[in-house]
Design brief:
Blueprint lengths: L2 H12 L5 H13 L1 H18 L10 H11 L10 H22 L1 H22 L1 H9 L4 H39 L1
Helix pairs in contact: 1-2, 1-3, 2-3, 5-6, 6-7, 6-8
Length: 181
């Protein structure tokens, strides 16, 4: 009889679930092995403690001590977002999609580019100082369409960048303060 065989049966012995032959073998081993006997005594103590219901009462100053610990914590900080990484990924992804569109679907992208080019040219004229540059880009045939389209994407990227920076700088702290109160 080994100690590991006996230890595997201690819980079933304490719960009185062993068969008569197993119980006899375990008791014979316990008579000969002091280590197993002391381990079984420890298990009986643990079982006895678990069976005794004890009310759990917090200390009288529990709430005050907990609130003092909370007040000692540093104020919560708004999570930092990797805004530059998001913007870089956006610009790289946008330019990759534009390039792939011109390579893979030249006819459709050309029509899209012409339409978008006219929209961008109108926006550039309305902007003022940039309209002078845009009008000179229109003198070079097919290159002007691509250049105007690329200029429109750059301007759209800059507008988006300014909107994201403004939202990050002004709206995020405002929302964080609003959610705290």
């Amino acid at each position: 009889m080994t100690c590991s065989w006996s230890e595997e049966r201690f819980e079933r012995y304490l719960d009185d679930e062993l068969s008569a032959p197993e119980r006899a073998r375990l008791l014979a081993h316990l008579d000969a092995c002091g280590d197993c006997r002391s381990l079984l005594d420890e298990l009986r103590v643990v079982d006895g403690l678990l069976l005794q219901p004890r009310p759990i009462e917090p200390p009288p100053d529990f709430t005050a001590a907990t609130m003092a610990d909370v007040r000692a914590l540093p104020p919560p900080q708004a999570p930092r977002s990797p805004l530059p990484a998001y913007l870089a990924c956006y610009v790289i992804g946008a330019w990759t999609l534009i390039g792939a569109g011109f390579v893979l679907a030249n006819g459709a992208m050309l029509a899209f580019g012409r339409t978008l080019g006219h929209v961008v040219q109108t926006i550039l004229v309305a902007v003022g100082g940039v309209s002078h540059v845009a009008s000179h880009l229109g003198d070079r045939g097919e290159l002007s369409l691509w250049t105007t389209f690329a200029g429109g994407v750059v301007i759209a990227d800059l507008v988006l960048l300014l909107a994201l920076v403004a939202a990050h700088r002004y709206a995020a702290p405002w929302l964080a303060q609003r959610t705290r109160s």
